[in-house]
Amino acid sequence: MALNLLLSLSVNYENCSDIVQGGAIPPLITILRSGAGGQKEKVLDILKNFSQDEDKCKELLRYKTTPLLVELVQNGAELQKEAAASLLDKLTQCKDVDGAATSAEKNTSLVALLQIGSTEQKSRVAWELGNLLAADDTCSAASVQDDVIPPLVNLLRTGSSDEKLAAASVLNKLAANNSIRDAIAREKTIPSLVGLLQTGTDELQDVASDLLEILALDDANRDEIVREGVIPQFLAQILLSLSDAGCAEIVREDAIPSIAKLVQAANKSEIIRLIPQVVSLVKYGDGKQKTEGVRIIENLATTSALYRDILSLEDALRPLANLLKNGNEEQKTISMLALEKLVISGSKRSKITIEGAIPVLINLLLQNGSEGQKTSAVRLLGSFVSNDAAIGVILVREGAIPPLLGLLQTGYEEQKTLAVQTLCGLTSTDEACSEIARGGSVSMLIELLRGGTEDQKKYAGRALERIVASDENCSEVAREGTISHIAELVKTGTESLKTFGLRTLVKLVRIATNREEIARKGVCLELAQLLRSGTDEQKTLAVTILEELTVGDEFSSEIARDGSASLVALLRDGSEEQRLQAGRVLEKLAGDSACRAQVTRDGAIPVFNTLAKTGTEEEKALAVSTLNKLVLQGTDIPPEEAIPPLITLLDPGTDENIQANAIRELSRYADNDEHLSEMVRLGAVAVVVMLLLRAKSVEQTTNAVRMLGRLAIDDTQSKQITQQGSIPYLVALLKTGTGDQKCWAAFTLWKVTACEANCDEIVREGAIPPLVALLRGLNEELNTSVVRALGNLTTTDAHRAELSREGAIPPLVELLRTGSDELKKHTLRALGNLATDDAYRRYDS
């Protein structure tokens, strides 16, 4: 119980300081060390709430929390591992803590996170570990002891670019130590580093080269590096960074010793020296010489990255682009193949674009290229587009989209794949998205989604998502009749196609003119089914579409018929956001008299009632609003279903008008003993008493006091009414209330005084004088309640004496003469009890 309370309090940031200052950390750490599993998880959540503040992080470190967290990260249950890793991540980000944690402790924490942390944590931790190594040489030895090398190498193989860069940087620092260098090599690190030289970013290639350079200091490692074919990659990097004079020094051992040894084993110097002559041949030779030269260049560009980079340095791009424009068919075909190999980096794409190759490539696609040339042209255009939006804009303006769309219809599979991949790259620009949307070509992309290869589906889906991202394009897509195709994906597609279709409909449905067509395509029933059986993303997307469809009232009946039950299920079992969305849709349906009964039949009332009591503040407000419509505006709701939400709607925080309507509606069921018992069981007494005590209007007061007396069905409820402080309010109403309020206050006091234990409290609060005063009125119903209340008070000597002193006997005697038979019966009881009092005997004589 204490942990639950601390957890609830710690959610509020302002409470955390008080909790920490109150000395909570030591016992919490004790529980973390030896408590049960569930207790540990709660403690972790509490400490995580503390860790939002730098000072509290320092406090946790001073209490040596990190070793416990490391133990949980490595050996705890799954939930404990995740929570401990999250907290450990926070603590490792804590700045200078004045010696609160040693370098070794922090290093151990980082290693633990590196082993089983999240993707984001691993990346940050790797960089942090690198910073520690730079600041403290002793960390190197500690790192090996903590077995940090295997997870770092694994990160190098499988991580993101940033994670790979971080891991390689740390390994670089560690490799300065001879024993650690051997350990790095034993983890099969070299193949991964060689792979980075081929596929990594420029920065990754630099770091990988540096690490390979260090590893190559050992003979065994150097042999493995050569076997992995690293020479061309190494030389390519060096050649790109040195002048011609510098290049000549590569093979000299006194320049870069470890690399020089590798270069000597390759024996490619003759080819390297020939490359400038080959480029000159393509530039200045005759037709046959140009053909032979471009064939050699294509072969070299295919062979290795080393040759590709040297060819670029030798300005081979310009003559190749010129042959692409002006050469014969063979020269064009081979030039295109060579350019495909050479156009790898962004700088080369830009250069070849400047040379004017784009219009030539587009022209080949449009009319006079062979099938092979078209394939090469679209592949080359695709390489221009990747990661370079500026070139994409040029392609659109040069008219690349129509021939690419043409390939989607008439090309063979490879051409279709390359075309849709290029179109996908182009859709990163607004111009391309607009042109494709206006051209009515979205249906082609949808056809690929339905029947294309996996790659074609992937690129078509990405392109479509970008196209429908803007409202203007959505309108164009709708005008082209594409909604029916997308709706069909949702109804009959595979799981991935359904998800894509839903994502697209979410964007389309936000435009009012599209909603009618979406609804007409019969998707409501499919959306309802997905709310029950779809993936979590599909449920969220489906309820989002339904919410948009209920913006107007046109489709409410269809949504209620097909989807109400599924919406109720999502309201009960969905995530918080899904509950809110489903609740908003149901609230809209509940406001429609034609849909209200269906929503009620599908069981919405109990679910909303639970939400009104246990949900978030936003969920509670939504639930109250919907219950108001379902229960207070609905008809033919069974009492057992109506009573619980009516009591919920009496909550003090509810709108006054809703409260008034709820208690008025609740009164309809108060004449039935079973219904009253159910109200009492559900806690209606406390709610109604609170309503009476907080009433601000005549109507609120009247409704509350009317209901209160009816709820006093036994001594237990009567005592509760008294104990919760309602008697002073009832007495005040006897004095100053309206006629109805006096009548119902007297009625309630009659019911409450039936429990003898309450009578003393009622008399102490001064009820007798106003009760006696009311006896002189002419209201038969009021007099009956007053007489019955006084009759209950006459059972005690002290109360009889008080009644006599307040002059109760004369009006009672008068009622005995003038009242109805029922009133006379109750009056006789009161007078009979008073007959034992001397005052009565004096009056009677």
Automatic annotation (TrEMBL):
Q: Repeat ARM: residue ranges? A: 147-189, 188-230, 766-808, 807-839
What range(s) does the U-box domain occupy?
Answer: 40-246
Q: Which residues form a coiled coil?
A: none
Q: What is this protein called?
A: U-box domain-containing protein
Q: Which organism is it from?
A: Phytophthora rubi
Organism ancestry: Eukaryota, Sar, Stramenopiles, Oomycota, Peronosporomycetes
